[in-house]
Amino acid sequence: MDQKTDPAIAAKAIVEAYLERSMVPDPEGARAYVSDDFDITFTGGRKFAGPHQTAGFNAKRYKWVKKKFIRTDAAYDAATGDVHVYNTGYLYGEWHDGTTFETNRYMDSFVVRDGQIVSTNVWNDSAEILLDKAGLAEAPL
Length: 141
Known about the structure:
The chain is an alpha+beta fold. It is 29% helix and 45% strand. It is built from four helices and six strands. The chain has helices spanning 7-23, 27-31, 51-61, 126-133; strands spanning 34-42, 46-48, 62-76, 83-95, 100-113, 116-124. Strand 1 and strand 2 (46-48) form a beta hairpin. This is Nuclear transport factor 2 family protein. It comes from Marivita cryptomonadis.
């Protein structure tokens, strides 16, 4: 199998292209990779309907933010035809106070169906870092 015939390889490429567009940020470009009924859940259970909403949320939290991909894995579910894709790495960027960061861990999970992302869940350390910056963390990072 090659990228054209292996659904896991194709799904990984779709997810990475979506993430690249999301980081520009280019919500319109990112939208090309998601289904009409796309569902996205951010850390804390925040629900969004698409890349425009997540870009707006990120703009409130970060001055700018990007992802350094460490690994993208995929598993094909033969029973449903879905491909479950997991992308992990580090967020890097700048908080609104001018402080930079580069070791903010993240893990995103995706479901790709028929060549489009239908859902994603996003987890990262941002909330913990912000709690620590505010002196509210229960333990040191």
